[in-house]
Amino acid sequence: MLLSNIRNQVPQVLINYLWHLPIGIMANIYYGFPSKKLTVIGVTGTDGKTTTVNMLYHILHQANYPVAMISTVNAKIGSQEIDTGFHVTTPNSFLIQKLLKQMVFKGVRFVVLETTSHGLDQFRLWGINFNIGIVTNITMDHLDYHKTWEKYLLAKAKLFSHTKTAILNQEDKSYSKLVKLANGKIITYGEKMGNYNLGNTKLKLVSNEIYNQINALAAFAAAEYLGIEKKEIINSLSKFNPVSGRMELIQKTPFAVYVDFAHTPNALKNTLIQLRSKTKGKVISVFGCAGGRDPYRRRMGEVSAKLSDITIITAEDPREEGVEAISKEISSWAQRAGAVEISLNDFSLWKVNEKSRKSTTHIYVKIPDRKEAISFAIKIADKGDVVGIFGKGHEKSMCYGKTEIHWSDQEVVKEVLSKLIK
Prior knowledge:
Elements: H1 2-9, H2 12-31, E1 39-44, H3 49-62, E2 67-70, E3 74-77, E4 80-83, H4 93-105, E5 110-114, H5 117-121, E6 130-135, H6 143-146, H7 149-157, E7 165-169, H8 175-181, E8 185-190, E9 196-197, H9 210-225, H10 230-238, E10 248-251, E11 256-260, H11 265-277, E12 283-287, H12 300-307, E13 310-313, H13 323-336, E14 340-341, H14 344-352, E15 363-366, H15 370-380, E16 386-390, E17 397-400, E18 403-406, H16 409-421
Parallel strand pairs: 1-5, 1-6, 2-5, 6-7, 7-8, 8-9, 11-16, 12-13, 12-16, 13-15, 14-15
Antiparallel strand pairs: 2-3, 3-4, 10-11, 17-18
Helix pairs in contact: 2-4, 3-9, 3-10, 9-10, 11-12, 12-13, 15-16
């Protein structure tokens, strides 16, 4: 408690330089600066980092490059896979350097590394020689830590200060600033603009959503720069399976159920647009927002009210804020978009009158227990509807107060569906 109070009184920049930087230096010295023997590709951005990391790893692995990867979902070193999905961003300096040392020992020469704004700002990646830096996009997020979007961007821009090559999204609003801050060669990509775009790069993906195509363009650019032929890249991407918890289809019929990590307004918007295109029925969204994190994320209530038919607001790592307080903020954003709250007692009546209603009113329901919320969403789904469960994705725990408990959206969905079948 005393340490927490002291840290709250000390500016973050001092903590970074007096605490995190020395740890980063010590970790490099202890493990012998292993990144000097590796070609490291860093991937940063608000959304799409993990998918892009896995795509590029997949391409290099298929091309028989001695490659490893570290993402917020997992780390892969040879045949070994390490689960890192327990509420982590970029791992701490000693763990990163330890993993890099293991990679060198096992003959790895290429590493694809997911890099977060916190990891960059707190010198967890100090000493790593990045040959290539990739940015997916930079939207509003982590303002609880960075305070402004400009400072958030500058934290991510640290990745490009020493890279030999920067791969930038020319259509993202961050481009005009990053292109001035990046050193070395600049390669661009985008849906319609850039050196790599959907017009001049013929992609065929298993999960062909537009944001996945754009992530694939970033991976494509890096892979070709590293010497892999275009035909080989296209063939590899056509066999890439989506990452766990990223538009993961749990059930297809009679109604579809997806689990997705979307936990920012921008990510939820992109995902709901795709889900809307997959059905003529209703889109039912289930999500919450993490406690003690950027309050801007709670604008997801407004996004869901505009793009889905029914919003179910529930828990998502409420921590010490509590589910009720967070749900109230999310619902206030939903109300701004014209959504109306329906109690569970009134929902049956709303359902009966649904078909006779001339225009559908966007409604939301608050169910604090996430398992009950998921169960409710599945039970009210009709044939042809789509249920999207957002915010947890690959994660395997939920934080209440200061306590982590085991949690998996996938497990809960499968349990509820199996009970319905029985």
